Amino acid sequence: MKSYSIAVIGTGYVGLVSGTCFAHVGHRVICCDVDATKIERLKRCEIPIYEPGLDKLVAEGMQQGRLSFTTDIAAAIQAADVIFIAVGTPMSQTGEANLDYVQQAARMIGTVINGYKVIVTKSTVPVGTGRLIAQWIGEASNNQYSFDIVSNPEFLREGSAVYDCLNMERTVIGADRPEAAAIIAELHEPFGTVVLKTSIESAELIKYASNCFLAMKISYINSIANLCDQLGADVDEVAQGMGLDSRIGHRFLQAGIGYGGSCFPKDTYALRHLTKEAGCPFSILEAVIDTNEKQRLIVIDKLQQSLGSLAGKRIAVLGLAFKPNTNDVRDAPSLTIIPKLLEAGAIVRAYDPVAADEARHVLGDQVVYMPSVQDTVMYCDACLILTEWEQIVEADWETLHGSMSRPLVIDGRNCWKAEKMAELGFEYISMGRPFVPQRETSLRVPV
After folding, report:
1. What letter would DSSP give residue 216?
2. Looking at 21, 263, 380, 383, which residue is catalytic?
3. What is the predicted pLDDT for the residue at 177?
4. CA-based nearest residue to 325, from 381, 272, 392, 276
5. Are 336 and 58 in contact (CB under 8 A)?
6. Strand pairing partners for 171?
7. Cα–Cα distance between 122 and 215 in angstroms, integer?
8. Cβ of 264: how many Cβ atoms within 10 Å?
9. Host H or E run for residue 415
10. 185: how many CB neighbours lie within 10 A of its CB?
11. Out of 83, 87, 187, 256, which could bridge 101 as a Cys pair, Cβ 3.0 to 4.6 Å?
12. Rounded distance, CA 270 to CA 443, Å?
């Protein structure tokens, strides 16, 4: 295997994980960023995101001399054979991806380029961005040096990104010239992955099409769950029956309170904007977005149906991150649900094993952040499950039952079998599954 020199511009989620994994399989990687504080932390092996296994790989790469961090972006670009652009593309007010950081990176490359480079877009960008990057680099460099643009979208899942990268299902390589595609394919050889070579435009669209399709499956099964609530069916049984069809499969058919995070919300809005710009109506995508926005509020409806007015009620919220094994709270359901609880006059206690600080930056101190599941549910009138962390699912719920003023659990993630919660004596309400009324099994802590 040939070892390449790689520069990764941007040390966010995508850049840091991708760069670290490339170093792990033998390439020489410099991760660079304009954020000097972040770079200094990374040099001390302090990881700014929570991602299982990433800290060990970063330490290993640095110890073996294959991974380094710098704010000297120009030097990193000039030393590299391959340059990955992995900067953020946040959603603008119109829903489209903001390409300001991509443009800044491209113009920096053009300003300091010193020879032939393969420049790879790792960020999620709209169709046509690759052509813009080529234009920006050419303008900044006066077309003094040749280069190739490649689109190589990432498909990493937060919480399992290291595993996903080292056990890559596929890599998509969009390029005009076969020679450039061959270099990026060779770069990925150690991962033993399936390689799909496409045009730049197709590669750019594949990422959006994939994420939006998965978002559609989530919104679809959540709509089925809502129908189950009305008709007395069990969404778990329905999903199981659906998933037995090999054309459908079981994955992404878990009913709940909808998707969040940095990808699905942003990508569905971006694709919707793209379809409008192209004059190509996409009513299915409109329904996916609308369903997801409404789905997370259903737990509040269920809570109010059980408690009536929420004014003065003590509500435990378990889980703040948008999914387990990450501290990412971007567009997390908790950030929609908790403000609604506070508006209704509820007293909110919240617990998350890693994302409390991130949530506090958004929610402030109106919420009481607790150090454990036990402390959170103590004396509470109800408990909402918003993230299916192992620490929450595997807690001693038999003991927790006795510590609540009212053992009412609204499970937004369908974490448990209804039979188990019934045995423990909980009043248990989940998504699209039969209601479990309270059955007394023990004395509870007095109010």
Report:
1. H
2. 263
3. 98
4. 392
5. no
6. 195
7. 21
8. 23
9. none
10. 18
11. 87
12. 52
The one-letter amino acid code at 259 reads Y
CA–CA dist 340, 386 (Å, integer): 14
Pairing of strands 314-318, 382-385: parallel
Q: Which two tokens stand for residue 223?
A: 């709509």
Instruction: Find out whether 219 and 258 touch, Cβ atoms under 8 Å.
Output: yes
**H helices within 232-282, ranges in order?**
235-243, 264-277
**d(Cα 348, Cα 317) in Å, to the nearest integer?**
7
Residue type, 165: C
What residues have CB less than 8 Å from 202, skipping those under 6 apart?
A: 174
Nearest Cα neighbor of 193 from 248, 249, 155 is 155
The three-class DSSP label of residue 348 is strand
- The Cα diameter of the chain in Å comes to 79
**Strand-pair category, 347-351 with 314-318:** parallel
Give the C-alpha separation, 245 to 391, whole Å. 33
Angle between helices 13-24 and 54-63 (to 10 degrees): 50
From the centroid of its chain, how far is CA 131? 27
32 assigned to active site = no
Q: What is the C-alpha to C-alpha distance for residues 238 and 230, in angstroms, rounded to an integer? A: 14
Cα–Cα distances (Å) from 47 to 55, 156, 201, 282, 408, in that order, read: 6, 17, 34, 40, 38
Q: pTM of the full predicted structure?
A: 0.93
Query: In whole angstroms, what is the distance from residue 333 CA to residue 355 CA?
Result: 13
User: pLDDT confidence of 447, banded at 50, 70, 90?
Assistant: very low
Tell me the three state secondary structure of residue 194. Answer: strand
